[in-house]
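User: Hey, quick favor. My workstation is busy. Could you predict this chain's structure for me?
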Amino acid sequence: MSASRSLIRLLGLAVSASLVPSALAAAPAQALVAGAPGAAPHATATGAIPIAGASLPGDSIPTARRLLSPDDYARFESMGPVAFSPDARWVRASVSRFDDDGEIRLLPVDGGEARVFPKATGADFAEGGRWAAVVTGPGIEERRRLQENRTPVRTDLVLVDLAAGEAADERLPEIQSYAFSPDGRWILLRRYAPPNGDRDSRGVDVLVRELATGAVTNFGNVAESAWADEGALLAMVVDARGRAGNGVRVFDPATGSLRTLRSEEARFQGLTWRDESRDLALFRVDPDTLRGDTVHTVLAWRDVARSGATVALLEGAHHLQGSRLRTTDMRGLRWSDDGSRLFFAVQTREPVEGDDEPAEDAADDPVDDPDAVGDPDDPDAGPAPAPGPRRPGGEGGAARGGNGPDSIPGVEIWHARDVDPVPQQRLRASQERRRSSLASWSLSGDPVVLGGDGPGEDITLLSGERHALVFDDEPWGAERMFGPIYRDAHVVDVATGVRTPVRERVEFYQQASPSGRYLLFFEGDQYHIHDLERGASRVLTEGIDAVFTNEQVDVVVPQKPPYGNGGWTENDEYVLLYDRYDIWRVRPDGSGAERLTQGAEDEVRHRLVRLDTDQDAWPRNGPWTVALYGEWTKESGWGELRPGRGVERLVYGDRGHSRLALSDDGRRTLWMSQRYDDPPTLHVGDARLGGARDLDRVNAFVDDEFLWGRSELLDFENTWGVPLQATLHYPANFEPGQRYPMVVYHYERMSQGLHNWVNPSDRNAYNTTAYTQNGYFVLQPDIVYRPRDPGRSAMATFDPALDAALATGHIDPERVGIMGHSWGGYQTTFAVTQTDRFAAAVAGAPLTNLISMYLSFYWNSGGTDARIFEISQGRMEVPWWEDYESYVANSPVHHIQSMNTPFLMAFGTEDGAVEFNQGVEFYNAARRAGKDFVLLVYEGENHSLARRPNQVDYHRRSMEWFD
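Assistant: No problem, here it is.
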């Protein structure tokens, strides 16, 4: 087919897009993989040519059930967050739907009718469990209409008396937010600001309502509010027009008393109660006329309910290294556990050049992970962040000069010795403006600056709050340019600010013990422990007959990470460490090492599960809950571990198990299970998961209405003899004796998804259920890698995995396609240049030329792609000039002349993970070589398509390409 005819075909699909869904639904079993014998090279779904003997939907299937059409997708449900009520008599479940309105379900644990609230987005229970509040709002279509008209979207609140029944529900209109009092007797309701209200005031109306009586107390001009943990004291910040009457007030709804703790024409913010106390602190924001910024004065009260409680006050620019520093709200406020100290941020007092707003109020959002240079985005994840600016300009190195705008050169200076390249500096600029030190204040005397504001510093308070831990990567800047990120560790005395070195060149810090005395590190394939009390370090695991290094990680790095740890037992007696299958306990002095589980014997992984989130240490003798996972069987569940007595399996079987939760009283448990052919189900049981019964099940309509596929596990060895597995998903209309087309979808390891239920979607081009409903098998194999050979490592899996699937006798070897995104897209692109076993291929955002990709940027983070190749997913270990042959051998574009497979590729022009030019290079090579190749270009899109029309378009074109 000519290039012009190929373009016309694709344009024709866009014109007749409304016809595609019904066409695909009407004849899924007629699907012809492009290039199959007897098929036109690009037969469309509307003109698919049946293969002799292929079954049509409904043929010989004695059931009223049918295959899905895209019109059915909106019905499918996903189970969101679930939680017990405080009395464990109800369960709150959030249910969303594909491109349709979701709902909140309140499920009675002991039987009865569920309470369902359409178009609801959130809910919570009051203490005691009698009352619930449910947030409702406009549906999806109405929300879109409001947003298009730039009309505010507002929510209502439904107040639910669970003891009284549905008739007692009360809808409260236009409630912005709410909060139950800790004792469950009152609810705070925050109204929206008037549409044309005073923008200088942050205050709105709030109502404090007694749940039992409905009595309401109204307050105006409230900017912030917070309930104390003890009793039901409510602290409020008043922020009125012109700041007249501004201040801090405390309301006791039980007595009706309202006290003013502070009143002045100032702005207050950051209300912070100490846990389980009546101690309160907040900031007063003051102008810093000397520096053209703001400073934050800290105000603190001990026991505000006590008559005559006085304020401790720390002026924002006083007592801080001769006023060189200012107090800010960048870290908020934190009380010490005993109430003797407050922790907050301080920053160098500098004018903010060219910025009308205070630095801490800057609108720039921090980049999610500016150091992230690892795997390209998971193709099933949400939209990637927008890429950083690619042209010189803005911040970070622009030279300035002259007397006017026209005389300022638009230049950035990029030096090859920059530790952080300019694109990364640019993305980090807002974070750097917010960099601050942590300070400790004893409520009397001067604060102590602990650190954390250095260019490469990060600071964390340790448990016990006697020390803070500071990591500094600045000394290892040259190493982290292209290698692992190392940091030096220091501890700081909270009372004095004295800093003491602990360990150099740290890559894997694990955690501190519950008391804060011990620090756990991993280095040289061994755990190391540092005792802060003695100021000494030792190797913890030397001599233990176990491997704690995660050897399944096959990236090429000097030190692989550990399997991890499960925390500590009470009183810092033991640290709990993981190997591949088991849990070990070891004393901090290295003695008493003991394997507590027997997972290695049957290759079942054991990991601790902390159900009580307030528990910071495990009871010495258990019982402890452990998650169980069969590495080769994919069975899963939970057990109960008692040290010295082994594990008793409580729930374990051939399903996916997740979301185990414990009620507040410790008497009931809640969990979810699923299979690919059985939708997610919520179960409730006793404390040991006994007496289990089903509480709710999403997508239950599937059983009666739709045909559905199933999944099975295949075992095979790659061409190197490594045992591996793959999941094989069957077509929904499968009948023994028929042969069907198949697509291979891959990334790295995939078989762990054997039991995952997959909702259908036309916004994901690689959706497993969409393909099985269209008459395809879907094969998802595991891939392992050798250094400097990623493409050929994938090929070492593809051939034997295909042979294992074909050995079932259900798959037509002439109708096998392959697809993948990002790294999976790379492997797809490489595969079609190495073999003719695939009749068609689809790849999204693939790497195509490892050398040019090595020399590009990961624009979403600003880092260079060189690190990906040397220490991460690329697995090339060295730069391309040190092993040119391996880079070329594993680059698809260098083998374009061998490609005979019809190939569809998609790219966003603003891809910030894999350069758009990777697609352009392959396109130009394929065009010159006269190959059957089409490139879909989505203007303005990043690594994963974000706009719904583009998502649907790519899904349909991909399916059409295979059909």
